Amino acid sequence: MWGDDVTLSREGEADVIWGLIVSGFLVLLAQAVIYSIVMGAVFLKRKTIGIGVFYCLLGTMHFLETYLAAVFFIELPFGLISPGSTVMFAGKLAFFLLLYIKEDAEAMRQPIYGLLSGNILMIALGLILRFYSDPASLPGYNPDLRFIDQMGLLMIWGTILLFVDLLALVIVYERLGAPVTNTIPGRIFISLAIVLSFDQLLFFAGLHSLAGVPTLAFYGGWIAKIGAAGFFSLMLTAYLRLLERDASRAATQGMADIFDRLTYRHRYEKLAEQVGRDALTGLQDRGQFDAKGAAMLQAASTAKLSVSLMMVDIDHFKAINDRHGHVEGDHVIRKVAATIAAAKREGDQLFRYGGEEFALLCPETPPGAMVLAERIRAAVANRAAAGLAQPVTISIGIATFPADARDFRGLLLKADAALYEAKTLGRNRVVSSSAAGARPIRSA
């Protein structure tokens, strides 16, 4: 009888353990299904309600995800499983990948920077509260600022890892997933499995250090995340095949491009390109002319080479403005700028000097400077001036370093004097400076 009781007791314990395993699995599965349905529905409506709603949905769960990853675990035979890490984080990573597939890398980065900024702000505001040492006592409630600090640090660490995860996720999806398999679910699964494994290793290090989470959570979490990668890859595939079957955006061309778009670097480079550019013509502006002109002369002096400066002015431009208006005047400036840019040599540097005046720095030109200047003058004169009563022409003054001047300021004065001479002689001509003064090269 006693042996029968032991057997029944063991069977009862086994039933209890099996029941806990099943219930734990069902809880995780239910969370994953609900997460996928809600996130997929909001993402599907992003064109109607705005993608910001999707971002806010990701952000609102960030604290709960981190909190559960640190304190709430379900015990299964292969280890401790946290819904925050297994379901919420793995699901978030999967939907970030969907965001990349349907949108682009730029759309991925916005919530990351928002989450990181919010985490830092949370810690900063919590630290300020420490200056108030006597908060009101409430029954059952005790403020735990240490807990806020702990969660804040975990969230910052998690967000930094998320940035690295997403960079790796896109690279694996684009560069490593395709050679292994051409199927969408296969590429998604490979990407998620590799990145989640990497994240589990580093995020657990933070959990163990800050919250004392045991090692069983590492092994159990890793196995559960691989399972989550399989589940979410199937959910994303179903979404792509059933709900959004239209063509996705073009794939990113390379890893450098992915990095640029995730870090805003291409925005900085684009901004840097715009600095020093004339807004009307897109040419380099006066500041660039002053800087590059002096540098070009210094380099030419060292190499014992020549540099020619052409000062170019649109003839009778005030009359064009007065007769046709400033809008048409701006059109003429842009048209002349484009014509000069097309006629100059590849190594020549063209600038908008100001108003209707341009400057062209031409290395190693004499005697070719005069030939080039005449070609430019003729190109502008021969281009049709649609809607204008008179043709558009230009006058050009040339000075050459070191023959006409030994420094940049002197070269500019000489070229300007030659331009004035060209205008005095009747315009629509090229005049070159010389030691004895300016002399006409070509008259139209």
Which features would summarize this protein structure in a list?
single chain; 444 residues; alpha+beta; Alpha-Beta Plaits; six-stranded mixed β-sheet; two-stranded antiparallel ribbon; 67% helix; elongated; disordered N terminus; disordered C terminus
Notes on the protein architecture:
This protein has 444 residues and is of the alpha+beta class. It folds into two domains: 259 residues, no CATH class; 168 residues, Reverse transcriptase/Diguanylate cyclase domain (Alpha-Beta Plaits), CATH 3.30.70.270. The chain is 67% helix and 11% strand. The protein is built from 16 helices and eight strands. The protein has a six-stranded mixed sheet, sandwiched between helices. A two-stranded antiparallel ribbon has the order 1-2. It is elongated.
Protein topology:
Elements: H1 2-44, H2 46-49, H3 51-60, H4 62-71, E1 74-76, E2 79-81, H5 83-102, H6 105-129, H7 145-180, H8 184-211, H9 216-242, H10 255-263, H11 265-274, H12 286-303, E3 307-314, H13 317-324, H14 326-343, E4 349-354, E5 357-363, H15 368-382, E6 394-401, H16 408-424, E7 429-434, E8 437-443
Parallel strand pairs: 6-7
Antiparallel strand pairs: 1-2, 3-5, 3-6, 4-5, 7-8
Quick structural gist:
Helix content is 67%, strand content 11%. The protein has 444 residues and is an alpha+beta fold.
Count of alpha/pi helices: 16
Structural class by helix and strand composition: alpha+beta
Query: How large is the share of residues in beta strands?
Result: 5-15%
Strand order, main sheet: write it out.
4-5-3-6-7-8
Count every beta strand, where a strand is a DSSP E run of 2 or more residues: 8
Mean pLDDT: 80
Backbone shape: elongated
